[in-house]
Amino acid sequence: MAKSPMAILALGLAALVLSGAGLVAAQNCGCQPNECCSKYGYCGTDASYCGQDCRSGPCTASGGGSGDPVESVVTDAFFDRIKSQAADGCPGKSFYTRQFFLDGAQANPDFGKGSTSDDGKREIAAFFAHFTHETGHMCSIEENEGASKDYCDETNTQWPCTPGKAYYGRGPLQLSWNYNYGAAGESTGFDGLNSPETVAQDQALTFKAAFWFWMTNVHQAVPSGFGATTRAINGDVECDGKKPDLVSARAGYYTDYCQQFGVDPGNNLTC
After folding, report:
1. Catalytic choice (134, 142, 143, 238)
2. pLDDT tens-digit readout, 79-94
């Protein structure tokens, strides 16, 4: 059906308005290092900004960013060198394997990706720095004396604690708290609230849970420096002068691994 001259004029005005709106949106993108620039040109940190069509920053949509294949960075020699520093009787020495780590990484294609290849290597170095610190060079699977500690947040009604179950640290990043076990279980396919011990029993699942925590809570902090990743993992306990020795220990591992990967560790190493 033919359009009247008035209809054509109205459509033209609407197009002009929408075009102007797009220009305004595009001008609003001047994000902080930990923020994403959305497809509409606004800054934020949740999936609506960092997901599909994210323009820049720590985008989480698959396929974005640069980085060498994780398996070419995390060689057998690198992985085994860390593990070799743990005592022979450590349960983690046979539990943590490079292949299960790589399987977990491959299921998260944005891991080890950044604005440059060096950014990707810095994220891998950060992951292994915290892995090393949390497990004592891949020695521990479960938190020392964890069973004696209370990691049940009774105020969290979305992920209520199961009587008789303990949510202390387990796995490469020592997953803790009922709300983390519940959400990790929903995402990776295990009953985190009723069977949290599975994270310390299943070699594949232990890395799936670790990568869930990393990609949900830590990945977006990487561009802000290693200290920001420490804050994301254990900031309430260690940062702001609470436990500077632990903060420095994490940063030391990170600096060492960056050196092994041939990249500058960057700034803001502590919190």
Report:
1. 134
2. 999 999 999 999 999 9
